[in-house]
Q: What sequence folds into this?
């Protein structure tokens, strides 16, 4: 057993003696100078770097990494990587979520599977359920993101910010091309690429009208079916 292994076991024992639940030590690494509140559970294959602060009654892991971050009370992090950010009370995050630096995840926010957040503020009770990128954005309260939403923050030279007000609804597969603002209560239609601001309580639609070409398959079956 190496010196690092011994230090890690001492750290685990220290936190267990202070009311932290670590039912299985498999893959759990807790560096020095970590603060963890009572009643928090640390699950296998979780890495917590020095300086991290975690509140009470959280569930951290499995397969979670936290570095240079502050985690509130009653937070759930399942298969999450979190860097240089804050996660506030009651947030439910994961699995397979990447929180990149300079992000603030608000109270009771839900980030679901395959969500990435970077340099963004997401206010309380907002839901980003799956397959979404939120970068350089300021998001209000009670916003719902449909699957496949992307904040298009980079034009090749400069990063731009997206602003989304309270109670907005972002339809599936929406591209929000920054800089752009959705005011309170705005909606976007599924499949839209939004390049202009959407006023409060309005619906933004930006997609081509569907055209059906009758009998197309029969006319082209020799060309496309080998």
A:
């Amino acid at each position: 057993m190496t010196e690092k292994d011994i230090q890690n076991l001492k750290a685990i024992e220290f936190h267990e003696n202070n009311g932290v639940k670590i039912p299985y030590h498999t893959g759990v690494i807790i560096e020095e100078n970590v603060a963890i509140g009572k009643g928090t559970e640390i699950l296998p294959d979780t890495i917590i770097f020095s300086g991290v602060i975690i509140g009470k009654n959280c569930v951290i892991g499995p397969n979670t990494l936290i570095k240079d971050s502050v985690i509130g009370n009653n937070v759930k992090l399942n298969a999450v990587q979190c860097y240089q950010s804050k996660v506030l009370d009651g947030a439910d995050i994961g699995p397979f979520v990447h929180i990149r630096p300079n992000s603030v995840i608000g109270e009771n926010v839900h980030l679901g599977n395959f969500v990435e957040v970077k340099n963004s503020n997401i206010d309380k009770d907002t839901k980003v359920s799956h397959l979404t990128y939120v970068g350089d954005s300021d998001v209000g309260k009670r916003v719902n993101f449909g699957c496949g939403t992307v904040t298009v923050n980079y034009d090749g030279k400069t990063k731009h910010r997206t602003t989304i007000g309270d109670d907005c609804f972002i339809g599936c597969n929406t591209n929000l091309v920054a800089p752009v603002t959705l005011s309170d209560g705005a909606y976007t239609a599924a499949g839209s690429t939004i390049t202009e601001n959407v006023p409060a309580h309005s619906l933004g639609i930006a997609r081509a009208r569907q055209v059906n070409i009758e009998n197309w398959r029969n006319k082209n079956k020799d060309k496309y079916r080998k």
